[in-house]
Amino acid sequence: MRSIKTKLIAIYAAVVLVVMTISGTFILVTVRNIEIDRTYSALRSHAIMINDHIVQQYRSVDFMRPSAWAALEISAYEIEGAILTEIGMPLAPETVFESGIRFNDDSLAQALTGSEAFTVGSLGADLQGVEHHQWFTFAMPVSNSDGDFIIYTRLNMRAMNDILSSLTFTLVIMVLVALVVTLVFWFFLADTLTRPIIALTRHARAIATGDFSRQIKIAGTDEIGQLAQDFNHMSRELRATLSRMASENNKLEAFLQNTSHGVLVYDTAGKMLHANNASSELLDGMNLNSSEAHLAFKFFGFEPEDVYQLRPGEVRESVHEEPDYYLYACITTYTGERGDVDGYVIILQDVTRQQKLDNMRKEFVANVSHELRTPLTNIKTYAETLLDGAMEDTETAKRFLKVIEDESQRMTLLVSDLLELSRIDSKHVALEMDVVDLVAIMRLAIRQAQIPAEQKNQTLIFRPTKTACFIEANAARINQVVSNILSNSIKYSPNTTQIKITMETTEKYYRVFIKDQGMGIPADSLNRIFERFYRVDKARARALGGTGLGLAIVKEIMEEHGGRVYASSQPGQGTTMVLRFNRLPDEEF
Ligand code: ATP
Ligand code: MG
Asked: Which of 78, 146, 251, 284 is the most exposed place for a label (fewest CB within 10 A)?
């Protein structure tokens, strides 16, 4: 890892290097330029001096005279000066003349054309002709009475180059020293800068792993100190926000897990994100892989294409049907931060009860209409036949009127049964309860059933308990219960059979058993005979005058009294109906 510390040091080293190099180069160039300027002036003044002291003072034949040059050499002993002919051949001084040197450079070429010139860095041999050196050269055309000449002066560049290289060396050493000092300085200084940053990094990492317990120590009020302070503030806020969110989340989770509604949540890619307990209970035993969104959508009766086009807030509903089970499903979308659809939520609800009640209601209305239509049709037909002339024949007329009377009676009974049921259903009027003796009620009901039983030559045998059985009840309703059951026993048993009524007392209950020797009830109908309008053999029951409401009323009244009714039967051998009543607590006597 390239740490911030190494980066800082590298940047600083680079800056020092660049600054020092630029300023070093600038110094070198300046020194060189100053040196060149100085040399130019020196060469020129030397040339002027040669002109003044020799060319203008002597005849050309005397140019070589050493005494003439003596004064010059003292003033500029390093500068070599010479007088050349107008075509550039050396004339004087003696040393130059004798060396046989031929000067040849740009300044001379320039002077030959008539103007003075200065060059830097021309190559040329020294007077001994041994070594070649770099020179500053200056050439200047002059003339006296003997003709035209060129004064040529030069200076070896070695002196300036020596100065420049020792200066370069000094500068390089300076750069190196500056670099080392900078590095050392920064090595320690960078730590003071990076330490708080490293601390911040550690702190941020701790926060990322959920550890909010630390606070950064704030040293100073500079930018980094400010940053640390803001960081501490941010971590406190973050902690508070997170704990608020966690609590919100827990609330939601508790709600989701404890609601009776099933909740399935999918994202837009169809991945299941959530399924609460209720949803698994509601979907228990169903052939559905609910983790696949499109399978789930189809299962509940939604078109996946339609679901994927749902806009925020839109809802689709459907009811999934299984045998004896109805599941209501409602699908909607949920949105993300920017308000676009982030996924789908399916809410499930078991509506079997509502659906069954609804079905029962429809069935009930259909049954009532049907039961009323049959006698009404009969009455209408017989009345019409009478009007069409059957009235003339007194015998027929009597028979027909009897049918009309029977059918009206049947309707009256049906309507009163329906009223009774509707009274119980609406629960508007609470029953008036008294403490009554069950044995007495039984006796009365049995006495009332005596006449229809005798018509069929049936015997009613009653074996009551020895003592009275007090219950809290509405005597008239209990009488109705017993009468309904006895009327069934009489109706659905052949002539000359016995109907035996017995009683039993247990710690909590009184039980009444009404046992006949009739046709019995098939096992699969035993539970259903208490439903409204249910008859085992519709045609036969109707012929016997039944509408299928008797036992429904019995069941409702027994439940109103906190009791129960159930049946057991051996088809072909007889039926036993059992009534169970709660005993009164002893202290009430
Ligand atoms: P209602 O009593 O309203 O005049 P119902 O007798 O047909 O008409 P329920 O008393 O509710 O109606 O009885 C329902 C059905 O149960 C009857 O139609 C009959 O098929 C059957 N059932 C009831 N009691 C007996 C019984 N003791 N023996 C045989 N079948 C019975
Ligand atoms: Mg009946």
From this structure: 284
Please determine, for residue 361, whether its predicted confidence score (pLDDT) is greater than 90. Answer: no
CA 356 to chain centroid:
39
Q: How far is the CA of 502 from the centre of ligand 1 (A)?
A: 20
Burial 318-339 (b: 16+ CB within 10 A, else e): eebeeeeebbbbbbbbeeeeee
- pLDDT class of 367 with cuts at 50, 70, 90: confident
Identify whether the C-beta of residue 46 lies closer than 8 Å to the C-beta of residue 116.
no
Separation of CA 372 and ligand 1 centre (Å):
18
Which ligand has the shortest distance to the CA of 521? 1
* Ligand 1 atom at minimum distance from 414 CA: 3
Could you report the per-residue pLDDT of 326-335, keeping only the tens digit for each? Answer: 999 999 999 9
How do residues 141-155 score in pLDDT, each as one tens digit? Answer: 888 888 888 888 888
Mean pLDDT of the chain: 87
Phi, psi of 364 (to 5 degrees): -65, -45
Q: Which residues pair with 333 in a beta bridge?
A: 344
Answer whether 350's CB lies under 8 Å from 335's CB: no
For ligand 1, whether the C-beta of 551 sits within 6 Å is yes
Q: Provide the residue type at 500 as one letter.
A: K
Q: What is the mean pLDDT of residues 44-54?
A: 86
Whether 471 lines ligand 1, by a CB cut-off of 6 Å, is no
Residue 437 in contact with residue 470, Cβ under 8 Å? yes
Measure the CA–CA gap between 354 and 348, rounded to whole angstroms. 14
Which single residue is written with the structure tokens 């159930």? Answer: 566
Q: Is ligand 1 within 6 A of the CB of residue 549? A: yes
**Whether residue 565 has its Cβ less than 6 Å from ligand 1:** no
Q: Full-prediction pTM beyond 0.70?
A: no
Q: Which long-range contacts (CB under 8 A, 24 or more apart) does 308-315 make?
A: 308/268, 310/341, 310/344, 311/341, 312/339, 312/340, 312/341
